[in-house]
Fold this sequence. Notes:
The complex is a heterodimer.
Chain A: H1 6-25, E1 57-60, E2 64-69, E3 75-80, H2 87-103, H3 117-130
Chain B: E1 3-9, E2 15-18, H1 21-24, H2 54-82, E3 88-92, E4 97-102, E5 108-113, H3 121-137, H4 155-167
Antiparallel strand pairs in B: 1-2, 1-5, 3-4, 4-5
Helix pairs in contact in B: 3-4
InterPro entries (chain B): Longin-like_dom_sf, TRAPPC
Protein name (chain B): Trafficking protein particle complex subunit
Subunit structure (chain B): Part of the multisubunit transport protein particle (TRAPP) complex.
Amino acid sequence: MQKLNSNDLLMLAGSFHGMHAITKQLCPNPPVPPAFSAPAANLAPSPFTHRPTGIEVLETSQFRMQCFQTITGIKFLLFTEPQQPNIDTTMKKIYELYADFVMKNPFYTVEMPIRCEKFDRALDGFIKLRG
Amino acid sequence: MVLYSFYIFDRHSTSTYSNPAAIARSLSAPTPPPSSFSKTPRPASTSSTLSSTPAARAHASDSEKLIFGLVFSLRNMVHKLGGTDDTFLSYRTAEYKLHYYETPTRMKFVMLTDTKLNNLRPYLHQIWANLYVEYVVKNPLAPVEHPGGIGVANELFERALELFVSTALPA
């Protein structure tokens, strides 16, 4: 992988956001909401489950990119080797770390770059443990 | 498997061939939902009921442009991230998968299928090497460039493509 400066990264993030939206729009068979049934009538219908998802996995000859989007719209991008197993569980764990160390940090302002030392350390430790 | 659509783009970003309906129906899988972007370049096509309305045709060319723009930027992003010898192979969403193959002459072969298939790059390469080169490039009557599918939409190529899709592709 190439080392990129933060300007390039911002540019890529912006274009990825657009591409993610386009892949959603291109969906040839939009998921259909389930038929109305009696037990489900008690629950409010979720507006999130029956929407096409955007890119989830991007494969190239040298790396593999996994994109995980939370319900609130935050995207986690994980770049791995093409043959890396168990990416889903890794992603889930990272999401947990994010929730624990970033969202529960009272000094973190949402939608700002993450500068939480504890999160960095926990993430490093977790990745090293798996590697 | 379900094949939703297949596109060929030349290096000038014009779609030279796109065929969602004709090959999709030749597959064994549950009938795919009628592709809203159904455009066949051959005027006297049997499956042109959808494409005959101007709205459907406009939608077809819209998705063509979207797909071209998308693979173009994905390819550029991959080059930026992985270096110039890295190639973009495919992406997957929860609903479909897009396979991509680019020849050295910058022709782009794009196929949209369901998510169960592994990488179709070797098959796309075969379509280029065995069908496109054989029936389009070697056709003395075909023009060099193919705006709007002229020359690519010949019967031999289409029939061979249909046969290839229904027999060679993994089920």
